[in-house]
Amino acid sequence: MGRICLTCVAVVSLALPLLAASPRRGLEGYSRRVWHAQDGLPEETVQAFAQTPDRYLWIGTTGGLVRFDGAHWVVFDRENTPAFRENSVFWLMAAKDGGLWIATDGGGLVRYRNGVFRSYSDKEGLTNEFVRTVYQDHSGTVWVGTDDGLFRVVGDALTRVDGRSGVPAIAVHAIYEDSQGRLWVGGSSLLMLNGNRAAEYRFQGGFSANRIKSILETRDGTLWVGTVSGLQRMERHGAGFARVPEISSTVRVLREDRDGTLWIGTIGEGIFRFREGRFSKLTAPDSLPSDTVLSIFEDTERNVWVGTQTGLLRLSKTAVSTFPLPDAADSDFSTVYQDRDGALWVASTRLFRFVGDGAVPHQFPGPLAGIRIRNLFRDSAGVLWVGTDGHGAFRLSGPQPVQYTKKQGLINDFIRVFCEGRDGSIWIGTDEGMSRWRPEGITNYGVRDGLSYFSIRALLEDRRGDLWIGTEKGVSRFHAGAFVRDAVVERLRSEKVWAIHEDPEGGLWFGTRGGGLFRWKLGKLTLYTSAQGLASNSIYHILEDHSGTFWMSGPNGISSVSRRDLDRMSEVPSHRPAVTLYGISEGMETTQMHGGTQPAGSLTARGEVWFPSNKGPVRIRPDWARGGDLPSAVIERVVADGRQVQPSGQLVLPPGDGKLEIYYSAIRLRSQERVRFRYKLEGFDPDWTEAFGRRAAYYTNLPPGEYRFRVAAFEMSEPQSVSETTVRIDWQPHFYRTAWFFTLCLALLLAAAWGAYRFHLRQIHARFEGVLEERSRVAREMHDTLIQGCGAVSALLEASSTLGDSAPEMRQELLDCARAQVRTTIDEARRAVWNLRQKPATGDGIGSTLSQIAQQVSLESRIPILCETDGKPSALDQEVERELLMVAREALHNAVQHARPRNVQLRLCFDRRKVRLRVVDDGCGFELAGANSPSSDHYGLVCMRERIERLGGRFILQSKPGEGTQIEVAIPLRKAAEAASGAGA
């Protein structure tokens, strides 16, 4: 043991005290991020900052106003904002009402509120357009300072304050209200306004020393005044100002952060920081983009923003420090190993030994001199093993190191990892297989012996004594002197296994290069990937601290996650672990982590976590880590069918094709690589969609309807704390897809069905009416032809039979009349059956026919019948003429057969509008009651009425017992023609 100690002393004494490596002292505890014009700024020069209540950061540059949410830049300038007459923004002030006041360098004053920009110029009372500062006091009064005067905003106008009422005229560059309510105004001189009283202060050194650029009162009551020649301060209750000797350049900006540190931005000398009575300095190029500092601002997330002449700088508090190594930039591999004495070894292009926060290059004597070292390992006996890049392994246990190469039996000279077995053997993983060193000799193992692949990346002996070997193509398990195959070996045979870790509960964890993290526990293999919330699917190394937190390195940084969270995921797959990523937000945006050669990370006794990178070793102090601020989710724009729509609480979209794009973001001024999103379109999406880093949701063929889009933003380290915003979308349908259109179509369909049904019923009724009409017509025809004719024949035959042989000539004449009547009846019956049509008859034709009918009836009945025609005869349709003839004959037969009249008159009258037929007898008459109802013996009156009414005419019957009967019909000539035409159709 004494020999080992002497060896260690000798090694330390031979260390070369060359260049020391240490973190950037000026930025200790802060990460640094710089933006230039190529990153999105309109111009390099940044002059002002402000943060509105919605958490947006507003940045004033010489090229316009910029709104920043932590990821996206939105520029407002003369080209897209009419209120801007000048692009150079000199000062910004966020007002208590949520508005933003914008002071421009020659373009007057602009106010932004509720999404609207409004400009102020001489019309509103601003007599100078070079506005240098805007300030709002405790009462809400807004003060405006210009190159020529101090103004106060009253309503929508500006009133000049200086040059009157005892206030001297002044060019104003700074305004500040102290804790006593006094207003300090600085510019061409320094004024203190206290109510109606004004006091002027002057500094030693002449006019230039009195040019004021900035004013600030710190929490200890000290009033600081920055001038073109340095910094002045007045202690609380002090009698005057005293010069600060440490600063002699122009002090452009003063800002106190929430930790009580005073930040002093100068022209040409960078930033001075004053804390606990001491000054420290930040300068370009290591700490600042430029030594000309124009503005400093601390946001609500405690980031410090610095505007300079040549770029924008963000300083964020961090638990991460990077230690650049001299002559070791961008090495292709690196390892970090903590020795028993607390020293930290870093093997890269050169070997370094860290003690505390300093590191010095180290070189071993003898055969190791000038050899590139890959890794170091101290075994349980205190022997230090050194792995080299092409020179095998060295064992330092005595005055001279012992070298093992292929000549001494080692399988390969390029060493990647050491591991000590419980039997004291040393396992050595190389680029081409694995060797087992024991005092009695070396045993080699390759692919032909059962090794899954020859390139070794990780070694671990578990608590059961099994050796696990991670390779570039799978994992191997060495059990009881032989390689065995199990479920883990089979599942991981195609994965690049770069890290193996055993937790205190016996679970085995395998980190892969691109395949995620695997856990083997209680015979179950579980896979964790970025889809379940991990920071990366590539895991170079796994460390576990005393609290059960996993620290894992990967290509995009370092992450930490509770092992218990991962265990719970195997039981509840929907559970999301709290993952903290140390990447861009910690100043590691250009850092590439290293792995594949062990140890690729180390957990020190002080609880510090170290990982190697291309920029040098990275140290994380977990006790310095700060929780992530809750990001504010915002919906930036909505694009519907290619048309951009301004998002609001309720969107009403016109009918379209159903293509919807919703772009969302999160207001998080620290770097946003820890921010994750999930969204859901209620009414369409059945569940939340995990968007991770994507900031847009796309929908196609979205049906019309009412939806609510919800997007939630959350920090990876706090997945249960979310910020959510929503927008309601009412996508109007095309008219042919609306409810009223479907209702109308249904109503029309029902109406069409009802119409068809009614039409069908009308057809049935019409056919039935036709049948009834035909039956009535046949009845009328039979009554007026066959029955009447048969009645006439019967009467003639009865008359002939009564004569006997007494009057053979008359008897013969009656028989001849009967035969003629039979022929006439047959002809009329035939015409009625076949409904023969003839050409329209002339007016005198119906009169002549009526006269013949009257003569025949008179001859048969031996009753005088007078037939007359009045007026100018008009041509009648044959059907109308026939119906009139049938009515006339029926009326005459009824009169001579039933009324027993002495005389009968038949008159036909024509006028311009009507044709009239009147039949009058002086017979016995009858009661009109029941005359309109047909009987078995008398059907004539009903038939006559039907014939006339069918033609649109009027039928009038007048009769009284003992007073005779009068029948009159009147048919309008037009209606008669129409009715006849319709009847014949």
- The top level CATH class name of the domain at 335-535 and 542-624: Mainly Beta
**β-sheet strand percentage:** 35-45%
List low-confidence stretches. Answer: 1-26, 834-843
- Which shape, going by the Cα principal axes? elongated
Number of strands: 70
Q: Could you state the CATH homologous superfamily of the domain at 335-535 and 542-624?
A: YVTN repeat-like/Quinoprotein amine dehydrogenase
Largest sheet: 5 strands, mixed
Topology of helices and strands:
Elements: H1 2-13, E1 30-35, E2 46-51, E3 57-61, E4 64-68, E5 73-76, E6 89-94, E7 100-104, E8 109-113, E9 116-120, E10 131-136, E11 142-146, E12 149-154, E13 157-160, E14 172-177, E15 183-187, E16 190-194, E17 197-201, E18 212-217, E19 223-227, E20 230-234, E21 242-244, E22 251-256, E23 262-266, E24 271-275, E25 278-282, E26 293-298, E27 304-308, E28 311-317, E29 320-322, E30 335-338, E31 344-347, E32 351-355, E33 358-362, E34 373-378, E35 384-388, E36 393-396, E37 402-404, E38 415-420, E39 426-430, E40 433-438, E41 441-445, E42 456-461, E43 467-471, E44 474-479, E45 482-484, H2 487-491, E46 497-502, E47 508-512, E48 517-521, E49 524-528, E50 541-544, E51 549-554, E52 557-562, H3 563-571, E53 579-582, E54 602-603, E55 609-611, E56 618-620, E57 632-640, E58 643-645, E59 650-653, E60 660-667, E61 675-682, E62 689-692, E63 696-699, E64 705-715, E65 718-731, H4 739-803, H5 808-834, H6 843-861, E66 865-870, H7 878-899, E67 904-910, E68 914-921, H8 940-950, E69 954-960, E70 964-972, H9 973-984
Parallel strand pairs: 59-65, 66-67
Antiparallel strand pairs: 1-28, 2-3, 3-4, 4-5, 6-7, 7-8, 8-9, 10-11, 11-12, 12-13, 14-15, 15-16, 16-17, 18-19, 19-20, 20-21, 22-23, 23-24, 24-25, 26-27, 27-28, 29-56, 30-31, 31-32, 32-33, 34-35, 35-36, 36-37, 38-39, 39-40, 40-41, 42-43, 43-44, 44-45, 46-47, 47-48, 48-49, 50-51, 51-52, 52-53, ...
